[in-house]
Amino acid sequence: MATKIGVVTFPGTLDDRDAARAVKLAGAEPVALWHADSNLHEVDAVVLPGGFSYGDYLRCGAIAAQAPVVKEIVRQASLGLPVLGICNGFQVLVEAHLLPGGLIRNERQHFICRDQKLRVENNQTAWTNQFAVGDVITIPLKNGEGGYIADQETLARLEGENLITFRYVDVNPNGSMNDIAGLRNQQGNVVGLMPHPEHAVEPGFGPDTSTAMRSGIDGLKFFSSAIAALVSA
């Protein structure tokens, strides 16, 4: 039986179909979840994709974090359900207190869209186990409010407990503290990041590489990692 990975859609979500395609390319079965669902339909993992949700004019992800589907995700995440939050999904995870800190307007107040290098800082998670620590990968990034912030005590805990999963390399595009691009929770089943791995899963549509234009597929390992984690559980 195929691994089932739910992909949540909020009103305004842009990248749910991209995330569903990434799940399918990795070898799992994508299951569409609506923001008003209070039932996760027995999925094995969940992706909160990027784009927008609703109420983002208040604070990105703040209203979406109160949605029935997110409340159920929070409950099941506490029991070990693997959850990946991408861009707006990362903002929702922070607002739902599944991950610490906050995300604010980019340092230079501009929307940024670029292929972004990241360094893998932690591979002991459900979504990063197919990487090696120190790997440098290239993932598309597109956000206006991606600046990660936290108080000094929280930053010290993230560093000391090795909860940072990804850091920006070469350039910090949005002014994130400590170059933080992604985080994990202590259990390792919840990961959030601002760049978009679902846009780097298929040759011909990913970032440029030294091999060929648009050939980058570094994002596929996020989804194959989840499958591997679930199969070995």
Description:
The chain is of the alpha/beta class. It has one domain (4-232): 3-Layer(aba) Sandwich (Rossmann fold). It contains 5 helices and 11 strands. The protein has helices at 16-26, 68-77, 88-95, 152-160, 220-232; strands at residues 4-9, 29-34, 45-48, 83-86, 102-104, 112-120, 136-143, 147-149, 164-168, 180-184, 190-193. The strands form 2 sheets. The protein has a 9-stranded mixed sheet with strand order 2-1-3-4-11-10-9-6-7, sandwiched between helices. A two-stranded antiparallel sheet has the order 5-8. Helix 1 crosses helix 5 (220-232). The longest helix is centred in the last third of the chain and has 13 residues, at 220-232.
What's the structural blueprint in terms of helices and strands?
Elements lengths: L3 E6 L6 H11 L2 E6 L10 E4 L19 H10 L5 E4 L1 H8 L6 E3 L7 E9 L15 E8 L3 E3 L2 H9 L3 E5 L11 E5 L5 E4 L26 H13 L1
Parallel strand pairs: 1-2, 1-3, 3-4, 4-11
Antiparallel strand pairs: 5-8, 6-7, 6-9, 9-10, 10-11
